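2024-03-11 09:14:02 INFO worker-7 job=invfold-0412 stage=load source=structure_tokens
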């Protein structure tokens, strides 16, 4: 009786596209936050070296870098869970393995940043 119409299908497709784009924007916001946090940690380690107790400065820098690394994992986890509702993913979506790889590479660079913080 209530069969889907072509217009109804198109509205559903557009709603899925908007939802997917919102999830991608959220993912990129998590990544930006992680990058900012890691950069803040590196800046603290480099610029504040002589401005206070070394242990306190190093601890603060390490916490910021670790928080940045955690953001990449959280970003991927949240995106993966959000797009799990789509089966299959809408056309034009970024493949999940690509975002997983990007998050992993950023996490590894954060580990390198952590080594730099500890070495500075």
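2024-03-11 09:14:09 INFO worker-7 stage=emit residues=120
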């Amino acid at each position: 009786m209530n069969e889907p119409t072509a217009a109804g299908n198109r509205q559903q497709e557009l709603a899925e596209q908007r939802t997917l784009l919102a999830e991608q924007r959220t993912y990129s916001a998590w990544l930006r936050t992680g990058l900012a946090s890691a950069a803040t940690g590196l800046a603290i380690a480099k610029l504040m070296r002589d401005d206070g107790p070394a242990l306190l400065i190093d601890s603060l820098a390490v916490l910021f870098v670790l928080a940045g690394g955690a953001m990449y994992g959280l970003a991927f986890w949240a995106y993966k869970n959000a797009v799990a509702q789509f089966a299959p993913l809408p056309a034009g979506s970024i493949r999940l393995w690509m975002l997983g790889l990007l998050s992993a590479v950023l996490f590894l660079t954060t580990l390198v940043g952590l080594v730099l913080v500890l070495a500075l």
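2024-03-11 09:14:09 INFO worker-7 stage=report msg="The mean pLDDT is 88."
2024-03-11 09:14:10 INFO worker-7 job finished
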